[in-house]
């Protein structure tokens, strides 16, 4: 055979081999195709043809329907049908890896064939994921929302974890996805990711007060375990919990809450693993499962049940009638063989856990820069988002501060927007949070009553910053609740004694500032405080000195709940009362409790203050028990002759009782007698 014919044969064989290779790829499942590691295939004509299908199946809202084998050829009629469905939102979901798989495929083909349509479709998919997220951080199974169990926060089949893994790669700016969003979108993905992790922490199930794992679905408002299909009853999940924990372990510089969640879940996985049992499967002539049986086998690797009782972790099973059974053999053929009742996925968690713990231990002992590490000086700590300080998170700094210290702990916070809930616990006394500048050192979060939704006291769980440690100081900060006009939403909650807040901006709407604690005393100096309804409320004795109180709507500035035993409640000295243009009818205050006490001295009131000044909140008893008064105020809003008859205008002699020393002096301790005079 001459060389010419040899060459022809070689070319023909390569051509046939290429066809066979492409056929083998297209014979795979859609999921397998999206996960292909062969980059060369994504440069092929076949991949480009599949990409055209992916673009056709995507809806204008950005999402894709589920269970579509995108690689299958489409007829002209089918293509026309898909074009007609572009504006429809029905069926768009992240269930069964929909949308996430298509985005992965688009990223891989864009790297080899940089068609701008692929990039646009990928970014539209990302926008869909961001829009679909609930305010509480979770995701429903379908978006726009589909009635029924589909609205629950969905961990089932790793739906929410798949989304968070995408957001993590984008916020961390890795090269996993070839398509790079704008900095603005990256910032949005970081916020969405953090909210998602917060939701995971909040939904971890407590069994008799002990953290365990997660359920396949959680109610989108109460976070409680929820039912899906008839045979998917509320239960602890051995399968879905595994991927959740692996995600948590992938987070750099994990918070104390994340570490606690992982530790608790691993203890639970060890507790509920099933040993000595093997799943045997019989296959029919088509290679499909025809029967499943559980067989005793002392050498079998560990298994975990898909569904376990919430009270005692007992595995259970259910047919389409929704009746619990405690043996797989009691389930009919269709559900017994057509559903995954056991899993081995937690073995990956247990395998990775020891390595993760060692890594954490090493980081804790290493030179402190970020994360859960010891600061260079535990009494002088620096927080900076660029990593130049001891920590990048305010809460991490507080977690690593000494408890009940002998001297003041100064936490300096560099400029930046810190999207986190901050808690100063009761044992973290003598803490000072000192911002670089009040305009540019911003702590923000967006919890509100309806989002928390844990009963009538949900308001008190909404603060962006919650202070429980005595002798706390906040200086040069902006503290915001950004949830908007959605009801009760606290920006700053102070439930501590001898607290100084100086040169700070406190922003919100209803219930912006909560100052509480019977007998507790607090001092706000040179602050700007804004809100709508009752935006300063609580039971503490508080002096507001040279502050601006800005009303955003027609409502009430204060709602004191002063205890009967307290001589003073809210005292405003040398303050300015201002308002938005739309706020024209604002009361100085109303009594949350009937013994409320609120006094304004030497304050300037704009014309938004109602002439009657005060409201009794439909409590006739409050007109006798409360004490509302003014002294030497000014401005068009100060109309003493028109005030309600049960309020007071102080005499000069009476006003002499309202000095910082008389109101705030701590007679219980000689060491703290002038606690309000030092702003460092």
Automatic annotation (TrEMBL):
It is an enzyme of class 3 (hydrolase). Residues 380-665 form the Pectinesterase catalytic domain. GO terms for cellular component: cell outer membrane. SUPFAM superfamilies: Family 10 polysaccharide lyase, Pectin lyase-like. GO terms for molecular function: lyase activity; pectinesterase activity. It catalyses: [(1->4)-alpha-D-galacturonosyl methyl ester](n) + n H2O = [(1->4)-alpha-D-galacturonosyl](n) + n methanol + n H(+). PANTHER family: ACYL-COA THIOESTER HYDROLASE YBHC-RELATED, PECTINESTERASE 53-RELATED. Belongs to the pectinesterase family. This is Pectinesterase. It comes from Flavobacterium sufflavum.
């Amino acid at each position: 055979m001459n060389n010419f014919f040899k060459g022809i044969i070689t070319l023909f064989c390569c051509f046939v081999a290429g066809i066979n290779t492409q056929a083998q790829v297209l014979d795979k499942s859609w999921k397998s195709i999206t996960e292909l590691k062969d980059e060369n295939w994504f440069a092929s004509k076949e991949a480009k043809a599949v990409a055209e299908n992916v673009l056709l199946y995507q809806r204008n809202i950005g999402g894709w329907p589920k269970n579509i084998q995108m690689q299958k050829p489409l007829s002209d009629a089918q293509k026309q049908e898909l074009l007609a469905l572009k504006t429809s939102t029905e069926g768009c979901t992240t269930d069964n890896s929909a949308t996430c798989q298509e985005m992965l495929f688009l990223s891989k083909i864009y790297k080899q064939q940089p068609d701008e349509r692929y990039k646009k479709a990928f970014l539209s998919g990302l926008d869909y994921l961001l829009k679909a997220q609930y305010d509480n951080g979770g995701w429903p199974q379908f978006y726009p929302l589909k009635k029924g169990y589909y609205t629950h926060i969905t961990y089932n089949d790793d739906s929410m974890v798949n989304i968070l893994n995408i957001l993590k790669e984008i916020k961390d700016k890795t090269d996993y996805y070839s398509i790079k969003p704008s900095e603005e979108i990256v910032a949005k993905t970081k916020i969405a990711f953090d909210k998602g992790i917060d939701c995971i922490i909040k939904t971890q199930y407590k069994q008799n007060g002990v953290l365990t794992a997660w359920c396949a679905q959680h109610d989108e408002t109460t976070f409680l375990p929820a039912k899906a299909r008839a045979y998917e009853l509320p239960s602890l999940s051995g399968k879905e919990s595994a991927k959740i924990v692996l995600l948590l372990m992938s987070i750099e510089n994990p918070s104390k809450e994340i570490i606690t969640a992982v530790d608790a879940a691993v203890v639970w996985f060890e507790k509920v693993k099933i040993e000595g049992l093997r799943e045997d499967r019989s296959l029919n002539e088509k290679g499909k499962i025809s029967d499943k049986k559980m067989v005793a086998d002392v050498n079998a690797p560990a298994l975990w049940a898909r569904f376990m009782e919430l009270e005692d972790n007992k595995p259970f099973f259910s047919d389409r009638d929704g009746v619990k059974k405690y043996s797989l053999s009691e389930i009919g053929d269709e559900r017994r063989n057509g559903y995954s009742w056991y899993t081995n996925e937690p073995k990956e968690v247990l395998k990775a856990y020891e390595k993760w713990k060692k890594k954490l231990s090493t980081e804790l002992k290493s030179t402190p820069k970020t994360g859960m590490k010891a600061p260079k000086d535990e009494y002088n700590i620096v927080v900076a988002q660029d990593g130049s300080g001891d920590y990048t998170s305010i809460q991490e700094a507080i977690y690593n501060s000494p408890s009940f210290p002998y001297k003041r702990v100064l936490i300096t916070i560099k400029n930046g927007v810190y999207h986190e809930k901050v808690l100063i616990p009761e044992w973290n006394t003598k803490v000072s949070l000192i911002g670089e500048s009040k305009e540019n050192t911003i702590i923000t979060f967006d919890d509100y009553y309806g989002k928390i939704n844990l009963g009538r006291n949900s308001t008190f769980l909404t603060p962006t910053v919650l202070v429980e440690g005595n002798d706390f100081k906040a200086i040069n900060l902006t503290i915001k609740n950004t949830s908007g006009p959605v009801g009760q939403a606290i920006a700053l909650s102070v439930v501590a004694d001898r607290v100084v807040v100086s040169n700070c901006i406190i922003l919100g709407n209803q219930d912006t500032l909560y100052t509480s604690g019977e007998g507790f005393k607090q001092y706000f100096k040179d602050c700007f405080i804004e809100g709508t309804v009752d935006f300063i409320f609580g039971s503490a004795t508080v002096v507001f000195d040279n502050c601006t109180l800005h009303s955003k709507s027609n409502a009430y500035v204060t709602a004191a709940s002063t205890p009967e035993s307290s001589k003073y409640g809210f005292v405003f000295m040398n303050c300015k009362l201002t308002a938005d243009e739309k706020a024209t009818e604002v009361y100085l205050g109303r009594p949350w409790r009937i013994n409320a006490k609120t006094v304004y001295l030497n304050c300037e009131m704009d014309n938004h203050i109602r002439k009657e000044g005060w409201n009794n909140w439909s409590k006739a008893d409050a007109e006798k028990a409360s004490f509302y008064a003014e002294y030497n105020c000014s401005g068009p809003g100060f109309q003493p002759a028109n005030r309600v008859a049960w309020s007071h205008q102080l005499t000069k002699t009476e006003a002499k009782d309202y000095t910082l020393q008389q109101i705030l002096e701590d007679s219980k301790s000689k060491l703290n007698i002038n606690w309000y005079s030092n702003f460092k």
